[in-house]
Amino acid sequence: MGRYKFDPATQIPSLTDKVILVTGGTAGLGTETIVQLSKHSPQHILFTGRNQKAADSVIQTIRSAAHNVEVTFFMCDFTSLESVKTAGHAIASSVSRLDLVFCNAGVMAVPKATTKDGYEIQFGINHLAHALLVKLLLPVLVHTTEEPGSDVRIVFNTSVGFALANTIDFPTLRSEQDMGALGTFKRYGQSKLANILYARQLAEHYPAITIVSIHPGIINTGLVSGLSTFNRQFVNLTTIGRQVPITEGVKNQLWAATTKKESIVNGMFYEPVGKVGQTTAASKNNKLAAELWKWTEEELKSFV
């Protein structure tokens, strides 16, 4: 079963008739999520990414495994809200229902930069782009909740790195946000804190949908291997003995999406696997969560 006590092969129920979306599905956790879910007979898996060649490889992997599952790729650049808007409309118009959404795409500890819309890049990708995509898909998601026996869920990938942030610096989000020493990790923590707070707010506003945030574990994926030498060494030194392979890291989001509804609390943050996660003053700050919701609504109003 592995380090984490959850076995996708036996503990994920039949997904017959389920329509599923995975962001960032062309590599790492996203690809593994698609592979594992495809073994349980969903009706349709949709996924996003920026690499058509990698997407073709994922689709071929599923087809070669003889899984009778429809798989569709949508090109989407999460550094561009206009690209997210285009993809969101395309996804929404291509399906009549949507049961599971994995907000899986993300970046970690990348150099100072901004998105094409001028937002700090980690916050723009990890939080704002996903918030827009979900907003564009909400009509389909809400419609699906109205069907008998439905169990609609959204799973946001966060990280215990959220503890590196004690607030969200709203006034400077439209900048590179120079935060000094280890600033790249502080900016990352801020974006991961936003994932937790936003999931909780979304659950309050749309209680018919089960919405949670999860930490997948400390995984040696491209997010780590692609870091600068210093940042990679920092991550490795601070996580000695705690890193797990992708096959383990995928389990918490698979659990969150497929465990019995009575086993999961709407708006909660979970660590691997299915354990209520740690908190900080910032992650429990309802005023900060409400401010994030209001700020996000204002920033995205021209795209929805």
UniProtKB/TrEMBL annotation:
InterPro entries per record: NAD(P)-bd_dom_sf, SDR_fam
Keyword Amino-acid biosynthesis assigned: no
Keywords in alphabetical order: NADP, Oxidoreductase
Residue ranges the record marks as coiled coil: none
Molecular functions (GO terms): oxidoreductase activity
This protein's record includes keyword Secreted: no
Family per record: Belongs to the short-chain dehydrogenases/reductases (SDR) family.
Protein name: Dehydrogenase with different specificitie
Organism: Amniculicola lignicola CBS 123094
